[in-house]
């Protein structure tokens, strides 16, 4: 039954009962007696209370749906309001859940395309920095060295300083290129890339320790890239905003997959809204069906956890070709 007719009929029943009482044992005289006024007032109050209770019970699923609409975040998928009520209310909640499923699928697809284009652009910029700018600066360094070898002693020292500045610029460009597209990830694998990342962020003001399990399951390239980028963003936030002295980068085997953890002893996460960095990590986590949590660590600081599911792989001896059993002799 539609919501309108349910509310209308409930109110109609209340009004019909009140009218029957007025036409039956309850009468109204002119002028109105005190007892009659009391009876009418009590009847009106009873009708209002009954109407309020009936409407609250009938519209409670809509209030839950409203709260779900205001708190839904596509970067935290999976949360759905429970389907309650009857008729149009249940149909409305079901339609809303279906819409969320479609929006999450479209968001994941568009994020995958955007991040794929971003990674392609990073590769292009890193290649140009390494091949063009890096080679140009290398040529400048060689020219400066030849010039300094034949220069007078007074000018030679100035050329040495320029040479050191150029060498530092070349190292900075190479560092930027490595961060844009980590070649060690493609060449040596995820473990070596994470160790290099911990070494890169470690320094006099921040000590970064790494703990990587040796028996990690086999991961595809997309999953490895997501793990690397989340670790990179977590350490970047630690170095820039946490004011931490120590940080830990860990990658361990977990039930059903692997878990990445970036933890520091800094000032902790505040109450402000999540920035672009954390939202970017959430978008990357959605690409591989992972679950990302950013919370205050025990004892202070911030802890970033990324739980990545890894599908189980059958051993090679368990894979039996179907065509061999097709010609098996009958029992």
From TrEMBL:
Keywords: ATP-binding, Kinase, Membrane, Nucleotide-binding, Phosphoprotein, Transferase, Transmembrane, Transmembrane helix, Two-component regulatory system. It is found in: Membrane. SMART domains: HAMP, HATPase_c. The keyword Nucleotide-binding applies. GO terms for molecular function: kinase activity. The chain crosses the membrane at residues 7-26, 38-59. Gene3D superfamilies: 1.20.5.1930, Histidine kinase-like ATPase, C-terminal domain. The keyword Iron does not apply. Coiled coil: none annotated. It is an enzyme of class 2 (transferase). It catalyses: ATP + protein L-histidine = ADP + protein N-phospho-L-histidine. Its EC number is 2.7.13.3. PROSITE patterns: HAMP (PS50885). It comes from the Bacteria. It holds the Pfam family HAMP. This is histidine kinase. It comes from Streptomyces heliomycini.
